[in-house]
Every structure is written in structure tokens, then in C-alpha cells.
Amino acid sequence: MRSRCTATTDTVCAPCQDEYFSSEHNHRFCQSCTICNTRKGSVEVKKCEKTSDRICKCVAGYMPDARYTLGSVCSPCPEGSYSIGGYEKCQPWTNCSLLGKNTLQPGTKTGDAVCSSHVTQPTTSQSATPTLNLSTTPHKNNTSTAVFAPSRPSLIPSICSDTSSPTETNWGSISLILICLILLMVSGMSILLLIIQAAKKETKRRPHRNSHKEENSFRLPIQEEQIDSDSSLIKN
Questions:
Q1: Can you tell me the mean pLDDT for 105-117?
Q2: I need a labelling partner for 189 at 20 to 30 A (CA). Which of 9, 123, 204, 214 fits?
Q3: CA 215, CA 227: separation in Å to the nearest integer?
Q4: How far apart are CA 101 and CA 120, in angstroms?
Q5: 88: nearest Cα among 101, 99, 74, 98
Q6: Rg (CA), the chain
Q7: Over the stretch 7-60, which tens digit does the pLDDT of each residue have?
Q8: How many angstroms separate the CA atoms of 66 and 156, rounded?
């Protein structure tokens, strides 16, 4: 429409200019066509015509921005999500580990993660399960302990490296006490052996001294007898 009707003139209509359209019979002016912002992830699906607006949509990895005409301006998907394009919101990647499956292909901005078709038990969950079973249920049968046997070596270093464990502290103090007692016993035995050896040496020396004394004691009377005999001869 170029001009509205008045009391003396009729309404004057004219075709819409380029980049303008009018989709119905009315007395309004032509509207401007929507512009697809290619820098914001938008792409043209249908061209602008005299009777219809331009249609835009988001490319893969983007989702529509609600503040603008649908599909004209798009926002990139946040980390951990994807979009195949169009007018849908970004969807989070499938977590294969939660499903018990292996991740064959990680997710991207334009595609979901690809998981394996069969369910597999993660190795981390296997190593964690025996730890709980060994500590909480020690009365399990032989088959369960045989299955959990590979996880025992991983538990031993963790127990030994815990310096705050009261059990390790008690063993350390007991071992120190035992070592001290052994050293005291050894030193005591060595002292006793030295005393015994010294006593034996003393007993060996004593008989010689007594023998010398006895000899001296026997000699004195003999000398006295000789003196007495000499004195008797002198008197005679």
C-alpha cells in the first residue's frame, strides 16, 4: 500500500520493494524481510519474496537465539553438548560410562558421542568393589575371594603407607622395645661371661701364692731346728 484512502480519494496500492513483503490483503505497509546472520550460525532456507518472508535456520553446532526471529540469529552449543542444526536446542552428549559401555567416538559440537553396542564393566569399578567387599564382608565364600584376589596387592601398599594408622604405630613401638630388651640381654650375658672369665683367672692364680706361703712356713721351722742343733753343740 502506497497511501490510505481519504474522503475524496481511494487507497493506492503498489508492489513491495525488494527485501520487503506483504503476506496478506491488508491496509498495512510492506514489512522488511528477515536477514539471516551467517556470522551467528544462521543460513537461508527460503528466499524473500513479495508475498512471503525469508526463512532462516541454524547450522549444526548452533541453536536459535530466542531474542531474535526464529533461526535468524543462532548461538553456539556450550561444551559437552551438540546440535544437528535447525530449530532445536543443543543436547548433552551421551555418557557411555554411565551406561556401562565404552566410548567409541567422543562427542563434538555437531554430533553425539558414539558408544559400544555391548555393555562392559569398567576396570575402575572392579577395583573399587573388592575393596568394599573385603573390608565389610570378610565371611564371603572361597569363590568370591578368588575373584577379588587381584585387587589385594593394590590394598597392601595403601595400608603400609598410612602413617596415621594406630596399628602400625603399636607395632613400631613394640619392635623398638623388643630390640632394646635383646640388646640389654646380650650386654648382660657378655658382662657375665667377662666376670666368669675373670673369676677363673683369679682362682688359677691363688694356688700358686698359697704354695709359696706353705714353702716359707715349712722352711722356717727347719732353720730353727738347725739353729737349735748348732746352739746345743756350742753348749756341749
A1: 94
A2: 204
A3: 19
A4: 5
A5: 74
A6: 57
A7: 788 777 888 899 999 888 777 788 999 999 999 999 999 999 999 999 999 999
A8: 58
* Cell 590394598 -> residue: 155
Question: Which triple of cell numbers denotes residue 210?
Answer: 698359697
How far is CA 66 from its chain centroid? 42
- Cα 43 to Cα 21, 29, 35, 78, 126: the distances in Å are 19, 27, 9, 20, 49
Statement: the pTM of the whole predicted model exceeds 0.85:
no
Amino acid identity, residue 63?
Answer: M
DSSP output for the chain: --B---SSS--B-----TTEE--SS-SSPPEEPP---GGGTEEEEE---SSS--EEEEPTTEEE-TTSSTTTSEEEPPTTEE--SBTPPPEEPP-TTTTT--EEE---SSS--EE-SS----HHHHHHHHHHHHHH-TT--HHHHHHSGGGHHHHHHHHHT-TT-HHHHHHHHHHHHHHHHHHHHHHHHHHHHHHHHHHHHHHHHHHHHHHHHHHHHHHHHHHHHHHHHHHHHHH-
C-alpha grid cell, residue 161: 603407607
| CA 195/CA 180 separation, integer angstroms | 22
Joined together, the cell numbers standing for residue 91 give: 543436547
Q: Rounded to the nearest 5°, which phi and psi values hold at 194?
A: -65, -40
Cα 43 to Cα 64: distance, rounded to the nearest angstrom:
11
